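Supplementary notes for students who missed Thursday's class. We covered one full example, reproduced here. Read the sequence, then the structure, then the short commentary at the end.
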Amino acid sequence: MKRYAHGGGVEEFCKSSGISPEQVIDLSASINPLGMPPGAKKAIKGNIALLANYPEPYCKGLAQRLGERLGIAPESILPANGSTELIYLIPRALRPEKVLIHNPTFSEYERASALAGAKIASLRNISFKKEDFLDGMRKADLAFLCNPNNPTGELLKKKTILEIAVWAKKAKCVLVIDEAFMDFCPEHSVIQLAERNPWLIVLRSMTKFHALTGLRVGYGVCHSGLAQRLFRHKEPWCVNTLAVKSAIAALDDGLFARRSLVLIKRERAFVESGLERLGVWFFKGAANFYLIKLKGAKRFSAGLKKSGVLVRDCSNFPGLSGDYLRFAVKRRSENEFLLKELSTFLSCKKEKH
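Structure (token representation):
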């Protein structure tokens, strides 16, 4: 089974390069530059002793808190070991014959579906084509759609997703909307509609916005009947105690959310202005990262690595060539550094010509 590379391989990079983790600037993984919410850190430190006990088998406490926060019945919520656990659980439990995927997108949709024995129908276009996707759903049992999409950042507005969800019901195709990056544009989420549509599953992650990356915690929302069907195939104790405690604390931290949105909005504007000034093509998405097209991208990436800076080589995304890179929006100093390196790289190219 083919395995795809992902961003965030800091430990492996440090072993091979001899650079210490403290010296690495990781722009390959799109994690909130503010890091974990303060309350989440406090929850981890204050609950270490609980690690001697088993966590709740199916995380009912977290489901209850999420339900209160979202206005959704806890029976429709599936806490998980990161949303990736659910990406693998859904095809395994539902056993679809054909799965529709719009590429380029997160590679684990395809791998999870193939492991469940499904045939993959791949639509390849850097921009989403709604009519093509709707037509593809006629012949599929399950469809994955990342919104905002990774690696482009393309955002499908709420109205568009609702149209697709209505069509999913007509086509009898289970639609999985992966909202891993939706915390950066929450007004377009359809999570509160999932419990009423038995053909819709919405996934959320606490990796990107809340930076609980290493703890692995996420959740899905769907109709309670579908949730029970998925639960029958779910292993117990998948979410550890510290992940649950920190997730609850993170969700309760409204100040952190507001600070994060202000920071990302400001830094996105700064990065976009810099890319436009340099004449670098980029996909104007809505998340906390940018996909750029750069001739000589692999050389640029290799040069950054020598300085301990990691960006995401996107050549292994179906439909993208070796000219594409993705990098996260971080704090001003890190964003300035990247734009400066881009400027130097482009100037050197001009001099050679």
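Commentary. Residues 38-252 form a domain with the Aspartate Aminotransferase; domain 2 fold (CATH 3.40.640.10). The chain is about 40% helix and 15% strand. If anything here is unclear, bring it to office hours.
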